Amino acid sequence: MVKPIVLALLPAVALAQDSLPAPAPKTWSGGFGAGNGLELHVGRWESRFIAFGRVRGKWWGPTTGPTADWFGSSLDTRSRQLEAAALVGYPLAVGPLTLYAATGVAYVNGRQLGEYRFTLRTSGALSDATHYYSYRDYQAVGLPLDVGILSPRFGAEKARAGLSFQANLNPQRSVFCVLATFWIGDK
Q: CATH for 25-61+76-112+140-185, among 2.40.160.20, 2.60.120.10, 1.10.357.10, 3.30.2010.10?
């Protein structure tokens, strides 16, 4: 008795499965950011949810003593922080623009310069000076924050340009960045 009822319902089940909506297209994208730091990011964007990861580095000069140049042996005389973060948040469409806010967890690794110690000068065809500072290396878990605005999609690659205001609040050295960002992908 049960078999004929099940067999009679099979065509209806098949028709119902055919009328189910198609799965949403993949919305993965990635890109980079530059400003008073450099970053690479990749993420998944949905209409009500975003999840992305970023790797960001920031460098800044000493607060006392001689300033370091970007080339030569003085390159290592800068404070720096490298961040690896996973963030989740919420996008909001405002006309053609997209506003978003996200937070998560981050691992930071950095070097904070201390007081100026001395300068070692070398002679030769190219005279150079190396400035030495006291410093301390640190590692911490921090709270990353990201608030940004993205332009409408343009080009065949569905690219978006934007502006991102970022922070990493941690017990060692909180860092704040403003970056021009570029996203390539489905969203």
A: 2.40.160.20
